[in-house]
Structure formats: structure tokens, C-alpha cells
Design brief:
Strand content: 15-25%
Number of strands: 17
Radius of gyration: 22 Å
Strand order of the largest sheet: 4-12-11-10-7-5-6
Number of helices: 14
CATH architecture of the largest domain: 3-Layer(aba) Sandwich
Number of domains: 2
Bound molecules: 4'-deoxy-4'-aminopyridoxal-5'-phosphate
Largest sheet: 7 strands, mixed
Helix content: 25-40%
CATH class of the largest domain: Alpha Beta
CATH topology of the largest domain: Aspartate Aminotransferase, domain 2
CATH superfamily of the largest domain: Type I PLP-dependent aspartate aminotransferase-like (Major domain)
Length: 444
């Protein structure tokens, strides 16, 4: 529309000056210039329905959040070495949303930093233990230490594979009825560590397995694993970077669905509605173990503006009752997706918790064989219809839906109307052929 740099120039500058493996999403990358609620607008002024951005938790550019950040930036922005009533009050308000035991917070800048710090705290709490247990398919962040705890990356191209101190509990797959026994998985991981001459200091697990393919953990799974891990002296860490802050609908924190209280919880993405902020919330005894004489300092983590962003976001979640809304709209959308599942052979499973939903695309309902090419085809055809979706999971065949929480029934209807049309058009022959050829890297 004249005001914006033309598409090819933006793309050319990017290709020249931004690292090449900083990838773009969608075959034809989108040039967005504005966001509002659950909608994004490109440079041509076209509107897109955003069904995947769980960072813009209370909506893109929420006026109360942006105003609070702008005001703070215009007043004072400094670090945690000064007293600030905003940060103290935010730490209180944030920890108030947790079970009583989880009462101490550390502030960081991202989910990766939160998990990196959680690992350091666990190392202090379990001295001498150097091994770590994680879930299959997990992603916990991009730092050197945390990439090694992220099979989602280390198993893929450019990855260094599993390090000997890392032990993987296979991702439970309720749809295929595999690996559902948490106690068995935990015992095997612990035994593997012992056989390698080590002990596990930390167990990391997302409360809903997002990169693992939007997996809802089997009932009692975390309770069993936590019991085994704690008996071993390991610290139990819940990664709520994707699924926290009311998204799961019935609970504010997704770990509550499993009826456990973690030792440490890591937070990111939605916490500041897009402002770079993360947090690690711990039980006091872990904070005491970490206070071993070395100062914890983080230049931007918990800076005054970050505190304002976190507080404004939390207040909006509470005032606008987004948790209840996620439960209501999530149920509505899931029911509609299940109707599509009845109609279309290649929708194998629809699962979710609140507004954290996965649709598993398969060759046939009987075979349950993943169909990653079909999933990508659906994603790309939907973006051409201006509906943004993502595809994930160990076989890249799960369509992910995790929109800003302002998403309502009307947006769910819009998504379903577009998706039904795409599904009714059927899959192109070459997509079906590619999925017939496709074989999983690891057995299903
Ligand atoms: N944990 C989970 C579950 C994540 O999905 C991510 C990011 N995708 C991270 C941690 C890392 O967060 P960040 O990108 O903010 O460092």
C-alpha cells in the first residue's frame, strides 16, 4: 500500500543479512505489518486469522499491555538490583496463581533461559547428580545446555544426537496406545542412568507435549513419574512455556490437570504477551539450594519494563476471564473438529485441552500411518485462504491450533468453514503418493 517496503526488497535484505537457518514459515513467506486481537494484516492490507500464536496470549498488541509497557519505558527501565514496587508486586501476583509451595520467582528473558536456569537450580539441589531425564520429541530451548535436552532438535538435521547423560522417556501416544505407563518409563530412564554410572538430577516435562504433537498426558502419568524421580533425588520441572496461563482451560497451569505440584515451573511465551520475558518459579527449598554464594544477575530479566509487561498481561488474563473462555471456546472448537473427523478419513485424532489443540493427519483411520505431506498441504492451502495454522509432532503430521485467547466461537466457525472446504477439495494425487512412500524414521 505504498507505505511499506516492497516484498522482494524485504526478502532480499533478509536473505543477505540475516542468518540463513533463521527460517521463514510458509512456502510464500508472509510480510505482516500489523496485529490486533487474533488477526494479522500484511503489507497489502489483507487480513489473516491467527490460529497459532500463543505468545500474543491476550491478543496481538493488546492496548492495556502495550500502554503499560510504553508508560514504564517512558518513566524508568532499569534492572533488578534496585527495589521496584512493580516487580515486587508482580512476583507476588504471579506466584499467587500457583499452589502455595511454589512461591519464589526468578525473571529471565525467554523460555530457553528459564529452562537453562531451572537446570542450574536442579544441579545445586541435587549435587553430584549430572544426568537429566526428558520426554521424547521435546523442545525446551536453544541454549547449548538445553538443545542437548531437546530431541526435537538434536535428533534432526544438524543435531549431535543424544548425549550419554540424557535419558529419554518415550513420548506417550494415547492415540496409538503406546508408552502410557509413566512408572515403567521413569524406571527405565533411571536404570539407564545408573548403567551409565550416573544419577538423574532433573526431569523436564511439558505439561501438554506441544512439539511432541499436542499430546495430552495419560491420567496419572506425571504423578507416577514424579514419584519415581523424587525417590531418585531428582528435581521435577514442569515446562509451561507453551501451555500455561490458562490456555489449558480447566486449570490455570496445565500441570494441575495431572494433580501434581512440580518442584520448579518454567514460563515464557505468553507471560509478557510478546515482550521478552520468562520466569522460573520454584519451591523455597530449591531457591535456598541455588543461593550458594554466587549472585544471580540477569541484565534484562525482570527489568522494570518486563515487570510492567508481565503484570499487565496477568491482570488482563484475570480481568477478561481468559481461562474460562479458553475452556468454553476450546470445547466448542474441539467438538466441531470431531465432526470433521467423522467425515474425513484422513483425520485420525482430535485432541486438546482448552485452546491447545492437535489434529492428527493420517493415511487412513485404520492404519493410523502419519501423513506429513497431507498435513503440510492442509497448512499451505489454509494460509492461501488467510487462516494461519502450524504443523508439528515427531512425524510432522499434527496440525496445531493454539490461537491468541481472544479467539471466540465466531473465529472457530471461520476456521471450521475454511478447513471443511479445504478437506472437501480432497488431497492432490502427488500428496497422497508422497505419503504412501513416506516411512517413519523411528518405528511408530
Ligand atoms: N519450552 C517450550 C515448550 C517451547 O515450546 C519453547 C519455544 N518454542 C521454549 C521452551 C523456548 O522458549 P524461547 O523460544 O522463548 O527461548
Amino acid at each position: 500500500q505504498g507505505r511499506h517496503m516492497d516484498y522482494d526488497t524485504v526478502l532480499a535484505k533478509r536473505r543477505q543479512h540475516i542468518g540463513p537457518n533463521t527460517t521463514l514459515v510458509y512456502k510464500r513467506p508472509l510480510h505482516m505489518v500489523r496485529g490486533e486481537g487474533c488477526r494479522l494484516y500484511d503489507a497489502d492490507g489483507s487480513e489473516y486469522l491467527d490460529c497459532v500464536n500463543n505468545v500474543a496470549h491476550v491478543g496481538h498488541c493488546h492496548p492495556k499491555v502495550t500502554a503499560a509497557i510504553a508508560l514504564q519505558l517512558a518513566t524508568l527501565n532499569t534492572n533488578v538490583r534496585y527495589l521496584h514496587e512493580g516487580l515486587s508486586s508482580y512476583a507476588e501476583a504471579l506466584t499467587d496463581t500457583f499452589p502455595e509451595e511454589l512461591s519464589v520467582a526468578y525473571f529471565v528473558n525467554s523460555g530457553s533461559e528459564a529452562n537453562d536456569l531451572a537446570l542450574r537450580i536442579a544441579n545445586c539441589a541435587a549435587p553430584g547428580a549430572t544426568h537429566v531425564a526428558i520426554m521424547g520429541g521435546a523442545y525446551h530451548g536453544h541454549t547449548k545446555a538445553i538443545i542437548d535436552l531437546s530431541p526435537y532438535k538434536y535428533e534432526g538435521p544438524g543435531g549431535e544426537g543424544r548425549k550419554p547423560y540424557v535419558h529419554v522417556l518415550p513420548c506417550p501416544d494415547p492415540y496409538r496406545g503406546r508408552h502410557l505407563d509413566g512408572r515403567k518409563a521413569a524406571r527405565e530412564a533411571i536404570a539407564e542412568a545408573h548403567a551409565a554410572g550416573g544419577r538423574i538430577c532433573a526431569f523436564f516435562c511439558e505439561s501438554v507435549l506441544s512439539c511432541g504433537g499436542q499430546i495430552i498426558l495419560p491420567e496419572g502419568y506425571l504423578r507416577e513419574v514424579y514419584e519415581e524421580m523424587r525417590a531418585e533425588g531428582a528435581v521435577c520441572i514442569a515446562d509451561e512455556v507453551q501451555c500455561g496461563f490458562g490456555r489449558a482451560g480447566d486449570h490455570f497451569w496445565a500441570f494441575e490437570e495431572q494433580q501434581v505440584v512440580p518442584d520448579i515451573v518454567t514460563l515464557g511465551k505468553p507471560i509478557g504477551n510478546g515482550f521478552p520475558l520468562g520466569a522460573v518459579v520454584v519451591q523455597p527449598k530449591f531457591a535456598a539450594a541455588f543461593a550458594n554464594g554466587m549472585e544471580y544477575f540477569n541484565t534484562y530479566g525482570g527489568c522494570t519494563a518486563a515487570g510492567a509487561a508481565g503484570m499487565a498481561t496477568l491482570r488482563v488474563i484475570q480481568e477478561e476471564k481468559f481461562q474460562a473462555r479458553a475452556a468454553r471456546v476450546g470445547r466448542y472448537l474441539t467438538a466441531k473438529l470431531k465432526q470433521l473427523q467423522q467425515r474425513f478419513e484422513f483425520i485420525g485424532d482430535v485432541r486438546g485441552s482448552g485452546l491447545m489443540i492437535g489434529v492428527e493427519i493420517v493415511d487412513t483411520k485404520a492404519s493410523k500411518k502419519p501423513a506429513p505431506n497431507a498435513a503440510t498441504h492442509i497448512k499451505e492451502t489454509m494460509v492461501a485462504r488467510h487462516v494461519l495454522l502450524a504443523v508439528d509432532g515427531p512425524h510432522a503430521n499434527v496440525v496445531k491450533i493454539k490461537p491468541p485467547m481472544v479467539f471466540a466461537e465466531a473465529e472457530a466457525d471461520h476456521l471450521i468453514a475454511e478447513l471443511s472446504q479445504v478437506l472437501e477439495e480432497g488431497l492432490p494425487k502427488e500428496v497422497i503418493a508422497a505419503d504412501e512412500q513416506w516411512q517413519p524414521k523411528t518405528p511408530l
